Structure prediction request, 296 residues.
Amino acid sequence: MNHALDIDQLRTFLAIAELGSFTKAGEAVHKTQSAVSMQMRRLEERVGQPIFVKDGRQSRLTEDGQRLVEYARRMILLNDETLSAFNGQKEIGHIKFGVPDDYADRLLPQVLAAFNRLNPSIEVLVECAASAKLTAAIREGALDVAITTSHETSGARGEIIRREPLYWVTSSQHSAHSQEVVRLALGPATCDWRRISMEALDRVGRRYRVSYTSSSAAALVGAVQAGLAITVFPESAIRDGMRVLDEKDGFPALADCDIALLRSDAARQEMHDTLCNHLVAAIGNVSISSSTLAAE
Prediction:
């Protein structure tokens, strides 16, 4: 009997382990859910042990499945290194990827770490910058792939992959939000969130002053946590030590924040497809097909 393990099956298995579901794994490895299920049945047959167990409507790794994860990582790495050594390539693949720092420390560490474990022969070079700068870099070909935080009127080019609420946030230990003239910590003049927040306060007649301006999310976080000002952040970017403000606190509801996936015209290789699929599977929560942003 042939007990050799199939690298493609192991790659799909590891995608399930990293992303937490058969559906997301299928998106990342570009396979249908039925194909993913078939691969996992065949992998279980080859291993000779169950690697998944039903938990309600979900499936989770068995103890043997958890043991298989590390072996799968090592085999995929060795496979990719071996092919690179003999196919004439002197360098591994490189992708220039951009992301706003609002998300860099919250979403990207685990997302890119999972991508690297699934695709060890592809190196991702990361640049953190404001969304407007990332969009320009994509158009100029200075970046291959980027995610940007956008608003529907921003005119950004790309596909919306995630939508989440945008919130007013203050320090949970201070009361900057209760000042008669509320102090704001916001991005630069090109920032959509800056415009949205100021227009919202103007509409309800709430007095404010922009006290801190920075393109660095860390600087805005510091100002808020120190009780010096309030800011606006999307749901997934809210940190510990922050409290969400709402209409009961005198702050109007804000529009949802869209995260768009952008890709340069030259980034059309298989490795670019692989990264884009992974990003959609890992952080996306809306249908790509129905959420295309208009090009300028």
Summary: The chain has three domains: 7-86, 93-163+258-293, 166-255. The CA atoms of residues 84 and 92 lie 7 Å apart.
